[in-house]
Specification:
Blueprint: E1 6-9, E2 14-17, E3 25-30, H1 41-59, E4 63-68, H2 87-95, H3 99-116, H4 132-144, E5 148-151, E6 154-157, H5 159-165, H6 177-182, E7 200-205, E8 221-223, H7 225-237, E9 241-247, H8 251-266, E10 271-277, E11 280-282, E12 285-286, H9 297-302, H10 314-322, E13 330-332, H11 334-356, H12 367-384, H13 389-408, H14 418-435, H15 448-470, H16 474-486, E14 489-494, E15 497-502
Parallel strand pairs: 3-4, 3-9, 9-10, 11-13
Antiparallel strand pairs: 1-2, 5-6, 6-7, 7-8, 11-12, 14-15
Helix pairs in contact: 2-3, 4-7, 4-8, 7-8, 10-11, 11-13, 11-14, 12-13, 12-14, 15-16
The structure holds zinc ion.
Zinc ion binds at residues 31, 229, 254.
């Protein structure tokens, strides 16, 4: 079943065979949210995309170290590199809060949304304010290597020198160096302090009213936004690691400057593969609060927004996101969400039917059997082709038709080998739940799914208690009986074994 995994690498603009630096292990860094407001739905798409990538790499057997940071300092208003107010400081000032209260509130909110979307937590979630020392060290190395200069307490990256001595600047974003070095950009302020207009700040001297500030060799100030990702990815994944990801709006200047900083400080480019997710549109346009074309995750779940006719569950939203490739734009509309809701229900019901199919034990290697085996392989082929979730889902939908025909008797289980049915059952379980990270919401609410789950869980609990009794571990056996009793579940030990009843 093993084929090569191919990844669209933003750095080479090509699909490349994925080869990790260390066999069997993957280091992946994804730029996390700036926690000064509720998480944007577009960011949710990015993080769900990387969650699926993380899950699929794990499914393939890689030991993945997934680092996703929390930006809690240094990200300035208007994405400027100096001169704008720090987004978190500004929110703290407006709401009369401590900056860390702002950070705490929106970090918790972000985690809540990630949890309802069933996105796994990363292996490490470092915060910029907890890595000031590492950032100061990196600024110092950049200065030591001659790629930075100090001006009035702030430290700037010397892009002119970097361009002259390396051929890296502009490579990731595909921008021409000549344009980068001549154009004036809104995100670059304080031009008078810089030697060259495209130089960017890596340490910023704090103005007197700036709340978040740290002592450094150059001034009391704070690190530049681009710097934190360079410092934290290096700390946790090494000077060069496998995958660096983020939304494609971060490609320039954020990621381009990260590459410059890493090479400027240690002589190595940070990542071998750069992955960028595309934009989430709404009704064919960029989301924008000012013209009403926007929706928050919460509004989408409750339906409390004029752009949707009803609320959609988090799993329907996740399923909707899976229906497009992470590298394509995705257009969120009410019609598309309604269709996703139907598709999600259909695939979950097909899975329930599939898991209930019982094979009599005799089956032939018929044409049908071969087709199912081919489709099982195809699901993997699609995912190995740059994590193509929509195509993998399309194959599962084809299989759903076959499953319904097997259930309805139009196709015969005797034309399917028992091993093929077992494989099919496994593939649906693995992909729907482990790789795509969906949960079966159609089975909740007291239906048959819940009863089956309850019976299954009780079988496990009774088995564990039996084991405890056999080894004369009476405290464990009694604990199980007493705790179940508190929940209204009574165990009865008899000659036939243990049975259970539930208080009404
Ligand atoms: Zn970043």
């Amino acid at each position: 079943m093993q084929q090569e995994l191919k990844i669209q690498n933003s750095l080479s603009r090509q699909k490349e065979v994925f080869k990790p630096i260390h066999e069997g292990r993957v280091g992946m860094y994804v730029c996390g949210p700036t926690v000064y407001s509720d998480v944007h739905l577009g960011n949710c798409r990015t993080f769900v995309s990387f969650d699926v990538i993380y899950r699929y790499l794990t499914y393939l057997g890689y030991k993945v170290r997934y680092v996703r940071n929390i930006t809690d300092v240094g990200h300035l208003e208007g994405d400027t590199d100096i001169g704008g107010e720090d987004k978190i400081s500004k929110k703290a000032r407006l709401e009369q809060l401590e900056p860390m209260e702002v950070v705490q509130r929106y970090t918790v909110g972000f985690h809540d949304v990630m949890q309802v979307l069933n996105a796994l937590p990363p292996s490490i979630e470092p915060r910029a304010t907890q890595h000031i020392i590492e950032q100061i060290d990196m600024v110092q190395s950049i200065l030591d290597n001659g790629y930075g200069y100090v001006e009035n307490g702030s430290v700037y990256f010397d892009t002119n020198k970097f361009v002259k001595e390396t051929d890296y600047y502009g490579k990731l974003s595909g921008r021409k160096v000549e344009d980068l070095m001549t154009e004036t950009r809104d995100d670059l302020k304080n031009q008078s302090e810089k030697r060259h207009p495209s130089d960017f700040a890596i340490w910023i001297k704090a103005s007197p009213e700036h709340i978040m500030r740290w002592q450094s060799p150059w001034s009391v100030g704070f690190p530049g936004w681009h710097l934190e990702c360079s410092a934290m990815s290096t700390k946790y994944l090494g000077q060069t690691f496998d995958i660096h990801g983020g939304g494609n709006d971060l490609k320039f200047p954020h990621h381009e400057n990260e590459v410059a900083q890493n090479i400027g400080s240690c002589g190595h480019a940070p990542a071998n593969y750069w992955l960028h997710t595309n934009m989430l549109l709404m009704n064919g346009k960029k989301m924008s609060k000012s013209d009403g074309n926007s929706i928050t995750p919460e509004e989408l779940f409750t339906g409390n927004n004029p752009n949707v006719s009803k609320g959609y569950s988090p799993m329907v939203l996740r399923f909707f996101m899976l229906q497009s490739h992470y590298g394509s734009t995705l257009d969120l509309t009410d019609v598309a969400l309604l269709a996703a809701e139907k598709g999600y229900k259909r695939i979950m019901e097909a899975n329930q039917t599939l898991q209930g199919l019982q094979h009599s034990g005799n089956g032939s290697a018929s044409e049908l059997d071969q087709r199912i085996q081919g489709q099982i392989a195809q699901v993997h082929i699609e995912m190995n082709d740059d994590f193509n979730t929509p195509k993998a889902l399309a194959v599962l939908f084809d299989l759903a038709t076959t499953i319904n025909r097997l259930q309805g008797g139009q196709d015969k289980l005797s034309d399917v080998q028992p091993e093929t049915l077992a494989q099919l059952q496994q593939v649906f379980q693995d992909f729907l739940f482990d790789v795509f990270g969906l949960k079966d919401e159609t089975a909740t609410g007291g239906g048959q799914g819940n009863a089956d789950l309850m019976n299954g869980l009780m079988d496990i609990i009774i088995e564990v208690r039996k084991g405890a009794k056999e080894t004369k571990d009476w405290p464990t056996a009694d604990l199980i009986r007493n705790k179940l009793g508190e929940m209204g579940v009574q165990l009865k030990d008899g000659p036939e074994g243990t049975s259970w009843t539930r208080d009404i």
